[in-house]
Design goal:
The complex is a heterodimer of chains A (476) and B (404). Chain A is an alpha+beta fold and 476 residues long. Chain A has 16 helices and 20 strands. Chain A starts with a helix and ends with a strand. In chain B, helix 10 links the parallel strand 1 and strand 2. Chain B is globular and about 65 Å long. Classes of the chains: A alpha+beta (476), B alpha/beta (404).
Chain lengths: 476, 404
C-alpha cells in the first residue's frame, strides 16, 4: 500500500498530532546514546496507551512497515536507531505506574515508566525497584527489558531479568500475550525470559510487572582512594575472594575522576588520586556491620590513600550521583565518547586495565575507565572528536581491539549495553555460526516478516557488515 | 559554550516538563540542544523546530541534571533574543513600553496593583478582546486587598548585621505585604534592615526583549540604590529576581567600567530564606499546621535552594508534607502562561493534582508560581491557600512568645 495510506491509518489510531512527519523532527530520532551512526525514520508514532500501541503494531503488520520501539533513547549500542526507514514507536507517553500489588510485591507499569521514578514512587512505602542502570534517572523500564539492563547494584541483586515477573507482549503480527506469571514458579519453557534482552527484535512489551523489594534495613558505603589503579583492581579481587558479595563495587580511573569532578556532582577528591573504589554493603544491620569491618580489614592490606565511610544518606547519594553521571560528564573532556561494554573474569582486572592503557596509547586515543568492578564489566570510554575523521576511524579500531582482548581473557563483548547495531560483527567472534543460526530461527518464528527492529543484533552471513543496510549514515 | 559538550546521554529527559507533557524528542533538552546545533550549522529547522525550541520554559531543571553543565535554558533564551522569535516577540516586546523606563515601570506596578480589586477584575472581563482569557484566569489567583493586620512585637535592632531588602516589581505590586513581612522577619532574626528607596525592577523581563541599553541603565539604577546604603546582603523575596540578579555579571564584559561593581552586587544577592537561615530565627513549638512546599524553578534549579525554606517552616512549628516532584515547573515561568497557555495549563493541572489533599497551605517563594498555582487550585475548586514562605513564617511569629 502506498506511503500516505499507512500513515493515514496510524493517524487515525493515535490522532494527528501524535504522528510526526516533519523531516527535522524525524532526524532528531536519528540516533540514541550511541552517536557513531544515524538514520532517518519514516515516521514517529506516539501511542497514548496499550490499546493504541496494540492497534499501531497490528496496523504496521498489515502494511508490512518495519518499526523500532524507543524509550528514552539512552541505548549505548544503537538499539533505538531506526534502520530500513523503520517507524519509531516512541513509548514516552506511556509512563503511568498502573498499580502496585503489595501482596505479590509487584508493580504493574507501562513501558515508558522511568526506572528511577518507580523507585521514587515506592520509597515512601519502604520499597524500591532494584536494578539501577547509571542512566536510571532517564531510562525507561521498557528499554531496560529490551536490553536486560544491569547497573552498579546488580552485583548482588541480579539484572533486569531477575526482577521481571510478567510481561504483556505484542508480537509482530499484532497478537497480544501475557508471558510469565505473578506466582513464583519455574516454567518449563520460559518465554518471558527470552523477551528480556531481545533488543526489540521479537516484539514490543506493552505492560511490565516488575518485582519490588524492601529497602535494605541498613547500608554502608565506603569510598577508597588509591594512588594506583592496579592496586585498586587487586583490592576488588581480594574482596570477592574473601566471600563478600557487596551490593555494589565500582571503580573509576584518573581520567574518569577528572570528568566527574568537573561535573555537577563534585565530591572533592584529593589531587593526584589514581582510582576511586566505591564499595557498598546492605542488608540487616548486624550483617552490614560484619561485612563492613571485614572489608575495612581487607583494604588495610593495600596501600590506600584514604578510606572514607559515608556519614549520611546525603553523602552516599552524592557519591553515587558523582559516579552515575560519569558518561555524560565526558562531554567536559571531549566532544564525543564511544563506550565499550566488555566483560572479563574479575581475576583478570589488573591485566585488562593495563592492556586498555596500551591500546589507548597505540591508537593515540584517551580512554577513561568507569566500571562495575565487582562483576568484571568494563566501561572504557574512548574520547574522540567526531569532526576528525581519522580519529573516528582509530576509535572504532581501538574499541574493537578492546573487545578482542576481553574475549581472549575469557570474557564477553557485552555485559549490559546490548549488541544493537554496534557489535554485530563482534558477535561472530564470540558465538559460533550454529548459535547465531539458532537465534535467527527464534527471530523468524516470532517475526517472520522481519519488521521488529530490523537489521540489528544478528549478523547476516559471516562478515555481516558488508551487507549492512545502506541507509545508515556512518559518522565520518 | 554551545552544544559542543552534549554527548547525547539523555539524562536530562526526565527532568523536562515539556517532554513529560508531549513525549517528543525535540521537546526535550537533548532535542533542543540538537535543534540549536542544526540551526547554527545552517539547517532550516522550520516553524515546527522553532516552536519546539520556544516551548522551553527556561525552568533550568535540565541544567541541574546535565552531567556536563550544558546551559540549555540560557542557550534557548539567547537564541530567542538573537533571532527575535517566539516569546521574545509576542509578549516581551509590548511589555517593553512599561519596562524600559522608570516611569513605565511605575505605571506597570500601578496596573498590577489595581488588578487585585475584584471590581477591577470584573471590569477586565467586560473587554475580552483586550485581555486574554488566561490572564483573567490568572487574575483569579491574585490575593484580595485586605486591611492592616497587627504586626509581631519586635524590638528594632540598632547594631545587627545590615541587610537590604529588594522588593521587585510584580512582587511589590501584588504581594507588597509579603515584602513588609520579610522586613519584620529580618528584624526578628536580628538584622538591621535597610530599604533602599530608589531601587527598581530586576530587569529579567527586559532582558528577554533584547534591549541591552535600557537593561544597562536599569542595572545601574539598582547598583546606585544599593551602593549608597553600603550594606551586606541583598535579601530578595522573589526567586525569579534573585536568580536573575545573581547572574548580572554575565550581562557585562569584564572590560566594562561598572563590571566590578556589578559582580560585587551580584555576589551580595541572596534569597530571603537563605538570609533568614543564616541569621537564625527563634524556634517555635509545633503548631499542628500542615504545609506542602512547591519548589520554584528559579530557587531550586537555578540557585539550588530547597532546604532553607523547609528548615525555616519546620523551625516555626509547621509540619511538612512533601508533594511528588515538588521542583517540577508549575507552568508560570515568567510570562510563559500568557505566551503558551495550553502547555502552561497542562503543567498547572499536573501541579495541582500533585498537591496533597490534607494540608493547610502550599508554601513557595516566587510570585509567578503563587499566582499560577492559586489560579490552578481555583480552577479545580480547591480551597487551599497558596502562601509565600515569608507569610507563613510571619503568621507563626505573630503573637508568639520567643526569645531572640
Amino acid at each position: 500500500m502506498s506511503d500516505s495510506n499507512w500513515k493515514k491509518g496510524l493517524r487515525e489510531i493515535v490522532g494527528a498530532g501524535q504522528l510526526l512527519e516533519d523531516p527535522i523532527l524525524l532526524d532528531s530520532y536519528g540516533t540514541d546514546g550511541y552517536t557513531l551512526e544515524k538514520a532517518r525514520p519514516s515516521a514517529v508514532v506516539l501511542p497514548a496507551d496499550r490499546e493504541q500501541l496494540h492497534a499501531v503494531v497490528s496496523h504496521l503488520y498489515r502494511e508490512r512497515v518495519p518499526y523500532v520501539a524507543r524509550g528514552a533513547g539512552t541505548s549505548l549500542s544503537g538499539g533505538a536507531i531506526p534502520l530500513d526507514g523503520a517507524v519509531v514507536v516512541h513509548l514516552s507517553r506511556m509512563h503511568q505506574i498502573r498499580s502496585i500489588d503489595w501482596y505479590n510485591r509487584v508493580a504493574y507499569c507501562e513501558p515508558g515508566v522511568v526506572n528511577r521514578k518507580l523507585s521514587e514512587a515506592l520509597a515512601p512505602f519502604g520499597y524500591y525497584y532494584a536494578p539501577d542502570p547509571s542512566s536510571q534517572q532517564a531510562c525507561t523500564l521498557g528499554g531496560n527489558v529490551a536490553e536486560n539492563s544491569g547497573g552498579p547494584h546488580c552485583l548482588k541483586f541480579g539484572v533486569t531479568l531477575n526482577h521481571i515477573k510478567q510481561l504483556e507482549v505484542v508480537w509482530p503480527n499484532g497478537d497480544v500475550e501475557l508471558l510469565g506469571s505473578l506466582a513464583d514458579f519455574a516454567e518449563s519453557v520460559d518465554v518471558k525470559s527470552l523477551m528480556v534482552g531481545s533488543e526489540g527484535m521479537l516484539g514490543i512489551v506493552s505492560g511490565i510487572w516488575a518485582r519490588i523489594v524492601e529497602l535494605p534495613q541498613s547500608r554502608a558505603t565506603t569510598m577508597v582512594l588509591f594512588d594506583d589503579v592496579q592496586e585498586a583492581s587487586q583490592a576488588v579481587s581480594a574482596i570477592i575472594a574473601a566471600g563478600v558479595i557487596p551490593a555494589a563495587l565500582e571503580l573509576m580511573d584518573p581520567l574518569a575522576i577528572e570528568a566527574v569532578e568537573r561535573g555537577v556532582y563534585r565530591v572533592g577528591y584529593p589531587p593526584g588520586v589514581a582510582a576511586v573504589l566505591l564499595v557498598e554493603v546492605d542488608g540487616p544491620a548486624p550483617e552490614v556491620k560484619e561485612e563492613q569491618s571485614l572489608i575495612t580489614h581487607l583494604l588495610g592490606k593495600f596501600p590506600t590513600r584514604d578510606i572514607r565511610i559515608a556519614r549520611s544518606a546525603a553523602e552516599r547519594e552524592l557519591w553515587w550521583a558523582n559516579r552515575k553521571t560519569a558518561f555524560g560528564a565526558m562531554g567536559l573532556l571531549a566532544p564525543r565518547y564511544y563506550v565499550q561494554d566488555g566483560v572479563i573474569p574479575r581475576s583478570q582486572l589488573p591485566s585488562a586495565l593495563r592492556k586498555i592503557g596500551e591500546i589507548g596509547e597505540h591508537y593515540d586515543i584517551r580512554i577513561a575507565n568507569v566500571f562495575h568492578a565487582g562483576d568484571g564489566n568494563l566501561h572504557p570510554l574512548l574520547l574522540y572528536d567526531d569532526k576528525d575523521a581519522h580519529m573516528v576511524q582509530r576509535v572504532r579500531q581501538a574499541g574493537s581491539e578492546i573487545l578482542r582482548m576481553c574475549l581472549a581473557l575469557g570474557g564477553s563483548i557485552t555485559g549490559e549495553h546490548g549488541v544493537g547495531l554496534e557489535k554485530m560483527e563482534e558477535l561472530t567472534w564470540q558465538m559460533s555460526p550454529a548459535v547465531i543460526q539458532a537465534q535467527w530461527a527464534l527471530k523468524n518464528a516470532c517475526d517472520p516478516e522481519g519488521l521488529a527492529n530490523p537489521k540489528k543484533v544478528l549478523p547476516v552471513g559471516s562478515t555481516c557488515l558488508a551487507e549492512l543496510s545502506s541507509d545508515v549514515t556512518r559518522v565520518k | 559554550m554551545i552544544n559542543e559538550s552534549c554527548v547525547h546521554c539523555g539524562l536530562c529527559l526526565s527532568s523536562c516538563p515539556t517532554y513529560l507533557v508531549t513525549g517528543v524528542e525535540t521537546e526535550s533538552p537533548r532535542g533542543r540542544v540538537w535543534l540549536l546545533a542544526q540551526y547554527s550549522s545552517g539547517i532550516n529547522i522550520g516553524e515546527t523546530g522553532l516552536n519546539h525550541l520556544d516551548d522551553c520554559l527556561d525552568c533550568r531543571a535540565c541544567e541541574e541534571a546535565c552531567p556536563a553543565h550544558i546551559p540549555v535554558g540560557h542557550m534557548v533564551n539567547q537564541f530567542r533574543i538573537a533571532s527575535q522569535t517566539g516569546m521574545a516577540l509576542s509578549v516581551v516586546k509590548p511589555l517593553r513600553y512599561f519596562l524600559s523606563t522608570r516611569r513605565g515601570r511605575l505605571r506597570f506596578k500601578r496596573l498590577l496593583n489595581w488588578s487585585r480589586y475584584r471590581l477591577v477584575q470584573r471590569a477586565m472581563s467586560w473587554f475580552p478582546e483586550w485581555i486574554p482569557p488566561d490572564a483573567l484566569s490568572l487574575a483569579s489567583g491574585l490575593p484580595e486587598k485586605t486591611g492592616e493586620v497587627a504586626r509581631p512585637a519586635m524590638v528594632p535592632v540598632k547594631d545587627g548585621r545590615n541587610v537590604m531588602l529588594f522588593r521587585g516589581c510584580v512582587m511589590e505590586a501584588v504581594y507588597g505585604e509579603t515584602n513588609q513581612k520579610a522586613y519584620d522577619l529580618l528584624q526578628i532574626a536580628g538584622a538591621r534592615v535597610v530599604n533602599p528607596e530608589s531601587q527598581t525592577c530586576c530587569g529579567a523581563l527586559l532582558y528577554h526583549s533584547g534591549d541591552t541599553q535600557a537593561l544597562r541603565d536599569l542595572v545601574l539604577e539598582n547598583l546606585t540604590a544599593f551602593d549608597e546604603s553600603a550594606s551586606g546582603d541583598v535579601a530578595v523575596t522573589s526567586g525569579g529576581c534573585s536568580a536573575f540578579m545573581k547572574e548580572y555579571g554575565d550581562l557585562f564584559s569584564p572590560e566594562d567600567p561598572i563590571y566590578a561593581r556589578v559582580v560585587r552586587f551580584a555576589a551580595a544577592v541572596k534569597d530571603i530564606s537563605d538570609v533568614l537561615v543564616q541569621l537564625g530565627l527563634p524556634s517555635l513549638p509545633v503548631n499542628g499546621r500542615r504545609i506542602s512546599m512547591h519548589d520554584a524553578c528559579h530557587l531550586a534549579h537555578a540557585q539550588g535552594i530547597r532546604q532553607s525554606p523547609r528548615k525555616l517552616l519546620q523551625g516555626a512549628g509547621y509540619a511538612l508534607v512533601e508533594m511528588p516532584d515538588a521542583d517540577r515547573c508549575c507552568g508560570a515561568a515568567g510570562t510563559y502562561n500568557l505566551t503558551h497557555p495550553e502547555m502552561a495549563r497542562t503543567l498547572q493541572a499536573y501541579k495541582v493534582s500533585d498537591i496533597p489533599q490534607d494540608i493547610d497551605a502550599v508554601a513557595l517563594g516566587n510570585p509567578g508560581c503563587q499566582l499560577q498555582i492559586a489560579a490552578g487550585l481555583n480552577r479545580q475548586g480547591r480551597e487551599v491557600p497558596v502562601r509565600h514562605t515569608v507569610d507563613l513564617l510571619w503568621e507563626a511569629y505573630q503573637g508568639a512568645k520567643y526569645e531572640r
